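Q: What residues go here?
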């Protein structure tokens, strides 16, 4: 069984710095397997149940997060000039390097997955896997059958040709239209560029699904939750990690 310094384990599993963890241990606020330990450099079994102020601390298991991203935030680990989606997560998650799986641009809202599982994230983003992403877009102008056909055939853009995509019109009038689009790739601002090539500016864009995981309708904008066991299994099965 692997052992580690108690102050390091406490710091790794909380928002405390290493110095703050040492202070908490010396103050008798930490228990390992129900026993108070006041020695910061004590080496303990990493699998032991740890508590801080009688609150159980999570272990080293992977983190899988579903975030309802608002507009106005960058999808990045950090940015010196603008807020990012990481500002919505607890410091502990950031410390554990719970990172976004792919990107949603600043003006796009909806489902964003974040996780510490690098292998799963890599497979979900691999072009050869063809994992579907479902978006809902409000666009300027009236969409019609010719737009649907163009998406189905694949659209040539300046730097690449977008793969065929399923576009379904939900509502259309002379001023604005609403449609859902399923992509199996996710290049930078791809949905916006595809609509723009057809003469339709995207007014609002929201991701509703990533692979088998859909946006939780009960999750407020800006909030997050951990994935359920069923959602994690579905993601792994989708990329042959089941």
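A:
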């Amino acid at each position: 069984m692997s052992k580690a310094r108690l102050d390091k384990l406490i710091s790794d599993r909380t928002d405390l710095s290493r110095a703050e963890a040492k202070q908490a241990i010396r103050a008798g606020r930490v228990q390992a397997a129900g026993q108070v330990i006041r020695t910061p450099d004590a080496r303990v079994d990493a699998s032991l149940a740890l508590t801080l102020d009688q609150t159980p601390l999570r272990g080293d298991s992977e983190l899988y997060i579903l975030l309802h991203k608002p507009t106005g935030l960058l999808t990045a680990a950090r940015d010196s000039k603008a807020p990012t989606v990481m500002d919505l997560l607890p410091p502990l998650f950031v410390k554990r390097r719970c990172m976004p799986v792919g990107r949603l641009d600043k003006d796009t809202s909806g489902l964003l997955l974040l996780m510490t599982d690098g292998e799963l994230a890599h497979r979900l983003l691999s072009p050869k896997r063809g994992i579907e992403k479902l978006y809902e877009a409000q666009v300027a102008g009236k969409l019609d059958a010719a737009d649907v056909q163009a998406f189905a055939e694949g659209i040539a853009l300046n730097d690449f040709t977008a793969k065929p995509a399923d576009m379904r019109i939900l509502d259309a009038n002379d001023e604005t239209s609403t449609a859902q689009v399923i992509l199996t790739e996710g290049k930078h601002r791809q949905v916006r560029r595809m609509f723009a090539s057809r003469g339709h500016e995207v007014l609002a864009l929201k991701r509703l699904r990533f692979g088998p995981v859909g946006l939780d309708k009960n999750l407020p904008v800006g909030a997050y939750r951990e994935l359920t066991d069923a959602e994690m299994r579905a993601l792994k099965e989708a990329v042959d990690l089941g």
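A: Context that may help when evaluating the design: The mean pLDDT is 93. The longest strand covers residues 202-210.
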